[in-house]
Queue: 4 jobs
Job 1
Amino acid sequence: MGVKTIPPAARAYIGCALLAAGACVLPALRPGAPWGTIALLAALYALCELPARCPLPGRALGGSVPLGTGSFFPVLLAAALLLPPAAAALAAVPGSLLARVEEPPAAPRRAWRAAATALAVWAAAHAAGALGGPAALGNDRDAPDLPYALLPAGAAALALCLVLTALDGGIRATVEGPPPRAAWRGLLGRALAPHLVHGLAGLMMGVLWRSGHGPVAGLFVLLPMYISCWVFAQYHRERAAHRATIRALVQAVDLKDRYTRGHSERVGHASVLIARELGMPEERLDAVRFAGILHDVGKLGVPTRVLRKDGPLTPEERRVIELHPEYGHEIVRGIGFLDEARDAILHHHERMDGSGYPYGLRGEQIPEFARMVAVADAFDAMTSNRSYSRARPVPVAVAELERCAGTHFDPRMVDALVRALDRHGWRPAVTADETAAPPGGNVPRAREASAPSPPRPSTPPSSSAPSPSSSAPSPSSSAPSGERA
Amino acid sequence: MRPGVLTVGAVRAAALLLGLTALGATLRNGLDQPGNALAFGALVALGELARWGAAPGEREPAPLAAAGALAYALLGESAGSGTTHGVLQTVAVVTAAGLAGIVPHLARGRGPGPDHLARRVLTVGFAALCFQPLYNSGAVVRHLGEGPPYALFLGLLLVLTALCDAVLAALLLRALTGFPYGSLLRDELRALLGIGSAVCATGAVMALGVAAAGLWALPVLAVPLLLTQVSYRRYEAVRTVNRQTIASLARATEVAGCTPPGHAHRVAALSAAVGRELGLSGAELTVLEHAALMHDIGQLSLADPVEGGATALLPAEEQRRIALLGGEVVRRTGVPPAVAVIVERQADPYREQPLPARIIRTVNAYDDLTGAGADAGRGTGVGGGPGAALDALERLRLGTARDHHPDVVEGLARVLARDGAVGMTPVVPG
């Protein structure tokens, strides 16, 4: 069948769906079916799905095409309102067979989609028919019964949505194995509103199709829907581009300071773990993730020679490195949606007892996001290999964090991280190149000041960089008073 | 007086005259089919209200209002019986409803500019003028009947109207910015393919839908268009964020001390203006702008920042090496690969370069020569002033043998000569 093997349960499921769809479509093949309308609607649906398949018309529309199926439900819903159930199901088949398949096993996917769409349209047509939909559309002589016609159209859209969601949830359950209830829960809520809007468009298309202006007028209804889907596809493309740009920002840091590869992404991940554990609403989690990912972006402003310096740092160089939170804050200043994340970038080296930098804020003065990122940053610094120290096991790192809770870190954040680790574990995506010590990064940076270590107040503030055996400079050396604003 | 002022004044005066005449005539003669007028007026007013949260410079901030206005202009029948509202009533209703809809926006100081209103009034007047006299005299129904040809006729009228609107918009922009008309018109026409076509199609379908099903068709058809508007907003929002992120990446070189403050933005804005001047439009301009923002990104890979950040004063080989390093970084961002190519080739001799790379090379050199970085090199101590600009242009002209394309240098000179007011404002919000 395809490249990927399909579980037998899914095979049987698809087979059943195909049989059921065949049984639904069969009555349409009797003589006397409205072949003209079927052919027109089927061709229209296929035509609407085609740009997703062929690059040429897609490119003419600006390089991006509507996503997969689902774009042209108005046509299907119009078919469900205009035609008897079997004929409507038949009209849906050619288009769903032709449409593009995203992933490799194409034949079974096409067959599955055709069967599911035909079944859903059949159900929608039955729902509309039961409420007198076709009659409510009116015709050449009778005006449509408009406020009432909304009811069959809504019922058709609802039926289409429910059947498609149920069938999709079923196939997910057989292929991937989550319980069907979990597979369905997410699907239905998201799908309902768009389907109802498509129902409205399908209704107007049906009304105009039947009216004296003929099918041509019905076509005009499709254009706004088509544009809407096209814009939606563009939106997804642009969002992917934005993610790539953020990654590029992070990778630009890697260009300069190669020993922390993957660190930013992991800090983003750990920050989200903490935030979720604290019950932060879903929409703020994105900001937390960006705060974690971008927390070190200010290193772009530190001269590469200093970052890669092979040997102890002079106090001057240390001060330059400790400017990186402020540089980072300045770099992302123009990005509108980062708001809270920007504060986290500025303050992620502050400490609860006020010994951090750049401002020496203490306790609740430090923004919440910054306290989160500080814990995540320290945790990842300890559990990953650094050129000056081997990765410590998670329990050791956690013990270290707990020891410094209250002085360096917000105990609430530490607790949240510990709870989250208990629940989800820590599976950092350690890349292979991380274990190899990159050239020129043999000295711990002041940046690592957030990595907790036994406080050694005896270290004078102006001392040079700590020896490679210690994981971090002492608290006192990391916050030179000259840096406080 | 600049020639642009005359054009803008003429357009505004024409719109004002049309609107006042229409309102006056309608007040004197009373409304035909007040039900229709009220329903479409309400739709237009609501559509204008729905411009909440529109980003400045959004192409069609109130698509529902535009579609409703067009539909009223092309309304022949309502639920089976003919209408008799003429051109003037159409314009009057649309103007009054549009004004009513933007009052809350104006009260908060964020209303649309007068040019937007003028365009709306003139466009609707054009559509109504094409359709209403023909329909009211019975010629349309006599020749085309009420079947499919009628629907196609409406479609044709809307295409004409959209073209008229695009011409008008480009004319206004030309008057305001002084950019070449062709490139502006191309931009406007390309935008028609997006939300513009959705607006036109909804306008036609509303006119036909009301003819077939009465006024109930209006709310039913308004919902899909609102959905389009929402998707468009979301798309624009993420586009803005992406551009801001790219600008941040560009600012990284400034924070690192590789380039003088504001360099990337100045080069991007000036490059976009020069690109416009040389006839680039649409996607080409976006690519140029992104490449200009990131043209210095290769310096991040250098161990030491270039003194003063003025790459134009470095030896050619070094410039090309930095350009190649920059291309590598740019390739990892989400921008089209064309941007990376331009960044890589910015330091090549101009005969081997594509046009956007030529523009960036020349504009970058101009900014380096006029900025602080140049002072150290020349020891003149003149930073910025008009003398520095002329000096820099002179040096660029001397470089047209190998480094700078003569057309690009002349384009830059024209943009700078045009008082620099619009050409110099940053395209990318900081």
Job 2
Amino acid sequence: MIAVLGLVVGVVAGLLVRPEVPAVVEPYLPIAVVAALDAVFGGLRAMLDGIFDDKVFVVSFLSNVVVAALIVFLGDKLGVGAQLSTGVVVVLGIRIFSNAAAIRRHIFRA
Amino acid sequence: MGTEETPGGENRSRELPAEVQGPPPAEPVRPAEDAAPEQDEQHQDPDGKAPRSGRQRLAEGLWPPRVTRPQLIVALLLFVLGLGLAIQVRSNNDSSALRGARQEDLVRILDELDDRTQRLEGEKQRLEDQRTGLENSSDQAEEARKQTVEKERQLGILAGTVAAQGPGITLTIDDKKGSVEADMLLDAIQELRAAGAEAIQINDVRVVANTYLSDTDSGGVRVDGRKVGKPYRFKVIGKPQDLEPALNIPGGVVQTLEKEQATVTVARAEKIVVDALRAAKRPDYARSSSQ
């Protein structure tokens, strides 16, 4: 419940405060958000499976974000940034969908 | 997503005890879960109860709210996620599509903008040239119109179709004996013209280029076919200092007329008004050849 509250508070704060994102980080923000979403879905699934561990969640969350941003950064440097970010989004999307399927089976038993 | 699932999870947790026995459906998919890195730890249940279903765990996590370390950590991370989400959504809605655009896209957009700017600059230049041309031509038309009006006025004075005023002299010839004839008046007119007279009027007849004078049988004079009464009053516009000596030179107009027993007076005036008019006559045959 506290976690859900945290998400809500974060969204509201982002909409209200309108913080300025540094220009260096800006291109990686969408990818980082998608990666974080993937980590959250993974964490939710793990919780439903009964194997949730906060330490693992924190590490996976941060590493997901960092690795996704790193891949896009590398792609930008190599000149294939657009393609690589598409690839990252596709992979993360597939994982989100498979995790969502597992969560669905837990909750709806179907 | 958590907010959406909250009511569903709660509702289902109420009816859950009836079907606790059901096999945990998560089992078949568990091997495929290598994507989620949270599988190294097997248990987080603090109490060693019987294994519960995913729904139960979700319901427990959601209600009642417990302030535990994992909850706080997850809340912190989710806060960060929500923040990033909101920022990203807002910056996408910000209508500044350029924010977060890639370098090559920006270069392309910049090129397009440069091209467009050049095109528009060219068009602007063309339109400004056109405007300058139009302004010049309208200026010229206005100038030509002014000159035409001015010229019309000058020609009107010459042709006698407009009134004129200016410095000049009045020449009065009082012919008591009736000895003054048309040729003497014509001599006076020629002398005045030679001295630079610009507009002449005898009594109420304007003297112009094609004015003619003739004697009448009764000893008077006709100007342009109209009989003018005595005394003959010339109103002349011109330079008085030129006109008066021209009439008074020895053997000139004044002396000749005085020889004929006529009384001649010449008076300078600062303002002479020549207001006798002639109708403009359209020539029947002659046409302007300047067009």
Job 3
Amino acid sequence: MDLKLKIWRQKDSRSRGRFVNYFLREIDPDCSFLEMLDILNEQLISRNEEPVVFDHECREGICGSCSIYINGRPHGPDELTTVCQLHMRKFNHGDTIVIEPWRARSFPVIRDLMVDRSSFDTLIREGGYISVNTGTAPDANTIPVNRDDAVFAMDAAACIGCGACVAACKNASAMLFVGAKISHLASLPQGRVEARKRVQDMVAMMDALGFGNCTNTGACEVECPKGIKMANIVRLNREYLKSTL
Amino acid sequence: MGKLQSRIPEGHIAEKWNRFKSTQNLVNPANKRKLDVIVVGTGLAGSSAAASLAELGFKVKSFCYQDSPRRAHSISAQGGINAAKNYQNDGDSVFRLFYDTVKGGDFRSREANVYRLAEVSNQIIDHCVAQGVPFSREYGGLLDNRSFGGALVSRTFYAKGQTGQQLLLGAYQSLSRQIKAGNVTMYPRMEMFNLVVVEGKARGIIARDVITGKLHRFSAHAVVLATGGYGNVFFLSTLSMGSNVSAAWQCYRKGALFANPCFVQIHPTCIPVHGDYQSKLTLMSESLRNDGRIWVPKKKEDAARLQQGEIKGSQIPEEDRDYYLERRYPAFGNLVPRDVASRAAKERCDAGYGVNSTGRSVFLDFRDAIDRLGKDAIEAKYGNLFQMYEKITDDNPCEEPMMIYPAIHYNMGGLWVDYELQTTIPGLFAIGEVNFSDHGANRLGASALMQGLADGYFVLPYTIQNYLAHEIRVPRFPTDTPEFDNAEEEVRMRLEKLISVGGNATVDSLHKQLGHIMWEYIGMSRNKAGLVRAAEEIKKLQEQFWSDVKIPGRVEDLNPELQKADRLADFLELGILMAKDALHREESCGGHFREEYQTEEHEALRNDRDFAYVAAWEFTGPDREPELHREPLSFEHIQLKQRDYR
Amino acid sequence: MSLAGIFLILFLLVHLTINLLVILFDDPMVYNRAAHFMGNNIVIKIFEIVLIGGLLLHVIYALILQVQNWIARPRRYSKANFSSTSFFSKFMIHTAGVILAFLVIHFSDFYFRAKFGHAAEIVSDGVVYHDFATEVIDKFKMLPFVIIYIAAFLFLGFHLIHGFQSAFKTLGIENNRYAPVIQTLSVIYTVVVVAGFTAIPLVIYFM
């Protein structure tokens, strides 16, 4: 298929960016979106132009590195999919594809489609863990965990930290990311011990980092490549209120 | 022996680790905070080691080239993690896990290391549960287990199909806690480019800031390498795009020995290659072989029609299907170990029975399992894998058999380490996949996660103190010494040299060529003529690389092409060493199959008399042949025997 | 924000009940008496201040949050978000603006006049009442008033259909079991409020 790509090019966080048009011919529909960008970059390099910079790593949809806003949607048009698992058969011959980076104050652009998501790491450092030192744990089966709680925890823990929730949210809010971690840990008995402090610290940091506020639009849930549910935001709100009262 | 002191403690195998721990040197708490440790890599081994060392009180500097420590490739592991808990009451024990691992590794690993691994496996599960890793559970609230290849017991703990992710996030969270506490300084997007050796000891690294391209110096009392595997030397593999050998390779060039480089694991169930543009291969979990049956057509004309796309697999009647694994290995059937399953698939495809357009694929069929258990049961079990498969191939495995083919997956070889995980450079430690230690010539499923975490949580934090106890009088030292100057200058010159080649070939195009050579001659099966030829072809490619590679941009800038080129330069050297190692090992064992050494039934034929040793290679200079050192392997607790899965 | 919202949601029900008296009873005095009670009872008067406080809180919070949200994304996407999320959730601030404008009209029409005595008066059983009932009926005989009134309540409906269930989410009350219940309640409530309020001018206009 032949495609017209409208790609955001930006030298660094301080420069002004702009869209540049590229044309690609005879792209195999079985090729992944990132492989399509690889092909473009090979051509750019041969033409002595700067290749397009984007984050990518595992290319099997689990590391959370890839982060591209395609035709108005984070990770593109396919449901429950990261960019690396998005295939060109989801597009049509002759399509124009608009390709932008995540846009949020807390995710400044580094270059082109690559953004700085270290604010997510900062959030986890504020308490997104259970304080247990290596070697001090009791036998793994000492505390039984209700299976439904374990399943809920697992579904929340499936977050890959890609930032699509922030990118999708009209307010650039990080509530789904924080909510997923809060409710993962709060639904396990091991995580309850620190639950109060964790939610207070993480929410305070989330505000300090300049993420927007949640207005429950649900865009995050729709765009999350791992299907993390809004229920985690509700859980976060509940834990926060409980810890405040 | 000479250079290779394995430093295995005396005593019965079950007492060695305890004996070591009770007699080793330790560092007192006040001194710990005066000692710096560099940990390179933040996968399971790196994150867990950095967190554990920091908890003990050491000052840790942690490095990863990704934007966050959570992106390390351990995150992609699907299946599970082994431990000898015996929660299923099915007769598991530390000894049995030890035995299975040594046997699965085709008797090319060190008994004492593997026994220790089996011993600490239980603590890993305890610790991870305490960290909040959401392992799958039974209705009673206790932990669930599943079975995996190469074992007669169910000892694999798992978190859906995302065990690696959950374990890594556990370690990442512990690491985050220590960063917050100020005991770890985290350097993301900072890639190690050189090791600094001062008076024979590893004392620091030179790293390049991926964003600015500037070089930075870091000093420490010890350096820990946890940089993973080198499978990307094959270009196409199940590894992540950035996985590379460069950090380990620089250490090799600085004097650390590289052991068994030719031991590469090829995973039998991956989605086959489908085009030239392809950048990576995707694994389909080994667990699929529990219910899927592997077959190719009996008749060549059926295969030809499949390759032409004239018919679909489901149209071929039962009597015309060749379930070749069940035919050849009636006892283990579709659940033979990875190396055996991979070779059998290649054998059928080489004979012309491949089922996709490239002729390099076999079927993995769930038809019978769906008939037996129902579609819902199968979808509940493998739903996420089926979705992933459908996303990539646009085929529904419930209707059409999956097409799979083996792909490069894991490296058993790596930096040589002694029992204390120290390389031949004092003060340089290697943990996780980057070392060679525990899997011999073939790794069993669900053992990589176990080894990475065992090294990081429970082994290195002890053994490194045996070294650091002698360093307590060494104050923190500056980085403006001649050794750091030289190490940085080496990197700068190399990068300048790379960018100034100014040729016409893109890095990826050269890397693909290397991949073809590697896969053709040093892949699933190898022979003398092919290995000799591979080394020659790689050398030619190496010349082309250094005269014709094209890298846009500047050195001191964000430059992904430069990063890739630097890694490729090392892969080219590694490829030559792999060919050499594979050539010298005149036997077949585990993932290393030499066509000259096979039984009449085409099974691997080991030669324990001449090759029951670890082959560790020493770098002797850029244009000189590496020197081979042998560490003999003695088996006191397990009897050596030919593996037989029939 | 959500607490003030839920408070206003409750108030709307009370308000609706009283308004419906106009069309439910032929005798305009029922409505006038109710309005009189609301206007003179000391408890209600205190409540009135609380109500205005609640409204102000809701508005001020909304403004602060909205500004923060705009700052959180300094540069917009060039291609709009296609996410198939609830449509009205994206336009809360816009619907709020319309409702606020209507409130200004509403206050100047009824509330201030009631307070500062420009309304017509009627005497019943020796007590002087404002004759709001007649005034309402007169107003709603005029088509422009009817249209403005109905339009305003449609916007209020758009606002409520998201706001109702959103408030519960923010308060952490919803979980998987209650979620469908709250969703349904949210729709029922919105339909009742909008239908109830818009029924009044329609009934009067076509009476």
Job 4
Amino acid sequence: MENKSKGRFGVHGGQYIPETLMNAVIELEKAYDHYKNDPEFNRELTKLLNEYAGRPSLLYYAEKMTKDLGGAKIYLKREDLNHTGSHKINNVLGQALLAKKMGKTRLIAETGAGQHGVATATAAALMGMECVVFMGEEDTKRQALNVFRMRLLGAEVIPVKTGTATLKDAVSEAMREWTRRIDDTHYCLGSVMGPHPFPTIVRDFQAVISKEIKEQMLELEGRLPDVVMACVGGGSNAMGTFYNFVNDPQVKLIGCEAAGRGIDTFETAATLNTGKLGIFHGMKSYFCQDEYGQIAPVYSISAGLDYPGIGPEHAYLHDIGRAQYVAITDEEAVQAFEYLSRTEGIIPAIESAHAVAHAIKLAPTMKPDEIIVVTVSGRGDKDVAAIARYRGEEIYE
Amino acid sequence: MSKISQAFADKKAFIPFVTCGDPDLETTAKVVRAMEEAGADLIELGIPFSDPTAEGPVIQAANVRALSGGVTTDKIFEFVKELRKDVKVPLVFMTYANVVYSYGTERFVKRCVEVGIDGIILPDVPFEEKEEFAPACRANGVDFISLIAPTSEDRIAMIASEAEGFLYIVSSLGVTGTRSEIKTDISAIVEQVRKSAKVPCAVGFGISTPEQAARMAALSDGAIVGSAIVRIIGENGRDAAPYVKEYVKSMKDAVREA
């Protein structure tokens, strides 16, 4: 039997979506295949990335952190310095431009921490498009500041009350909305997940991160790093950080998942450490689920990593052993959040703090002539109130 | 001809849906028997899923009620086995890919045969991905039922030519749930379907009134109703069976005259 399935990474990926959406993803794939090689499209996108989002982002040598930890040299890839405060803008500018070329006038998006929602609302404002963002009701409370930012940017924010009222429910609701209204609407998916071609499109738009790391590292150190690492929810900043190093076997790739209260508890979101193979949200990949395939109500202090699945390309890199995925607890992430703030004067997003936490563990075990690059995917302003609450202090945002 | 296709022989079929275990399996058993007595030609049994992305609010709520009542895939297989002691009407499962996949597709389909399930509908498995499930179904004589949507257009012939059991025509864009009006040109879709399909086709999504059912059945080979029935169960809980029976009878009467 001929295999008609598209967008596979090993056994992972595919297009497990309702028939209603099939022509929409086929149309998207055709448009993307056309525009990705279109010089005019790429010129416009590069202009937006450089002049609007502020790329290239800095590769910063964290000297104090390096000396304090006493091991490998640590560089931080500063995606937190991008316009809107995270790596999400890289993908959103690409998809919004593509949607516009396709004649779409309306963007819909899911968001967890609110970073992707803010980025989408921003791109919509810039390009004169309508924007609706779905956000779990639980997350609208955890990230109230970002909800207001999105509204300020002219987007409509719809709190999703179903299920666990977090990121996975926001994705489900955005998919439902897309089946309702396809003609004028592009679903601007925020991570390297969902049905083909999204994992590929989002990865390509985020690959600018590793492209720049490579160039900057060669310029600064004259060689490639030994380790690159990033936090993983759906996995877009990690995929962007890994992509241009996948074929450099000497570079170790490490993804940092959210262990929540621990991978031996039910309050975790560490998909590769606790999940099993399944089919959900348009893709075959690993998911946190029970023995009957019911998706687990995952938990993490970080709304952006609070997702029961992982992008199919990560699942594949895990299967073939090319990348390693470690689990970081809430407590470790909060400590890293505080550590980076104090040591380097950089307040990272609580998501990115998961990667920083692993660097804190790993660097002392490495030699001073070895190099780690940690992607700081976003800035932590949005998390300050939540961290204060975690430490027992009630403050008003 | 499969048992499912036979359900359409010489008549327009009325196909009701119920979520298993909403609010418990005893109620579902009464509801299924009431549906058969009221003249249902084929019954869709929903296996609840935690995140039913093709469902509107009514069936989403039924999934939550059923799962919080503790129903599982194994309990549903046992329930169908018990049901089959007297229920003769063809039965199909409607659920999501992960429910089948996590159970083990081959094992799931074999259990279907053992307990007397005639077909499977997975709304999150389009034509391109059906080889994940269809071969196991084919090998065991269970129909893998395909869906056609208002957006299918140039895909209709491809889907219809490989269809088994019956073709499920989705009447409208969006998720399941009742609609005041169905705007899609169903007759144009049916016309295209009939050029390629060897099996009958029925229309579902958005149908709640006898008038709508009659109109959709007149244009195709049958009408499928889910949310309107699930709403009756949601409102009447464990006492829902007689109300469902009355409703299904009125719908079947309308379809019969179509």
